[in-house]
Write the structure tokens for this entry.
Amino acid sequence: MEEAKIMTEEDVNRTYLRFAHQFLEPYDDPAEPAVIGMQTRGVYMGRRIIDVIGRELGTRPDFGVLDVTFYRDDFRSKLKMPEVKVTEIPFDLYNRDVILVDDVLYTGRTVRSAMDALMAYGRPRSIRFCCMIDRGHRELPISADYVGLTLPTHADEEVLVKVKELDGEDAVYVIKGGAVNV
């Protein structure tokens, strides 16, 4: 397998700063939008963006964590037992503007699952989507509202967004001949 670093720690941190400003731009009150990180790396990304907002503006929007395992359309077709993680949304979603955060946008199926899951918890006013990498290959008509980098890929490549908390570094890699993202 061949590996290429696409984004450095500096690139990733600059992207978090840009996301923080983009998230708040449409609002008079910086606490108005709620940010929800999708398990697993989207949670760490979302927390980083919330931390930037806190440092820049002295306020922190509501933050939640979402696991979409049971909402996936391939949930029952996988051979192994799914690894279910925590969902924690400690605020009312009704009539809220929600920004979902995940690492990679690929087929769009995970984002569709996330929207289904959110609707099971409440009725947001709007749902926006943020991803570090949009790698193309959509199977559903879904696009990101906030994108760190649009990176056309081949189907046999994997995009890996690394976060310090899990991987010991902040970076983005493309791995040729790797397994594909979902």
Remarks:
- The mean pLDDT is 92.
